[in-house]
Amino acid sequence: MKLKYILFIISGLLAVVLIVIVLKFYYQNDPLQSVEMPKCTFFVLTGWKCPGCGGQRALHHLLKGEIWQSFCQNPLLYFATAYIIAVLSFGKKYKFLTGIKACSAWLIGILAFWILRNVV
Predict the structure, then answer these.
(1) In which region does residue 47 sit, left (phi positive, over 0), alpha (psi from -120 to 50) or beta (all else)?
(2) Whole-angstrom Cα distance, residue 32 to residue 59?
(3) Cβ(60)–Cβ(30) under 8 Å?
(4) Separation CA 23–CA 62 (nearest Å)
(5) Which residue among 2, 37, 45, 65 sits deepest, i.e. has the most Cβ atoms within 10 Å of its Cβ?
(6) What is the pLDDT of residues 10-57, one digit of tens each?
(7) DSSP type of residue 37
(8) pTM of the prediction?
(9) Selection from 59, 86, 42, 47 nearest residue 106 by Cα
(10) Measured between alpha carbons, how far is 35 from 114 in angstroms, rounded to an integer?
(11) Are 73 and 57 in contact (CB under 8 A)?
């Protein structure tokens, strides 16, 4: 029991350290100017933006405190983050957040976002 608890603490600390390293990397490197940042394969192959395109730039702007620029890069990330937090916080209490209707609504919303961002 004690070893399991110690391993849990160590893995949690390693996760926090990894997250801090990644956030520092995104803070210091602009995805538009950095060669280390991965490019969207879908965009490179088709020239169309996928639902996740702009996510790295959004994170970079958010870490710099540029909230509006971050939102403009990929607004879906803000809605998805809020939804994930709601599911993790209240998912067991409010089943409508994780049911088939919620998943269908998210799928339709993501598809609509995908289409609209390439048309508009």
Answers:
(1) left
(2) 12
(3) yes
(4) 10
(5) 37
(6) 999 999 999 999 999 999 999 988 888 888 999 999 999 999 999 999
(7) S
(8) 0.80
(9) 86
(10) 26
(11) yes
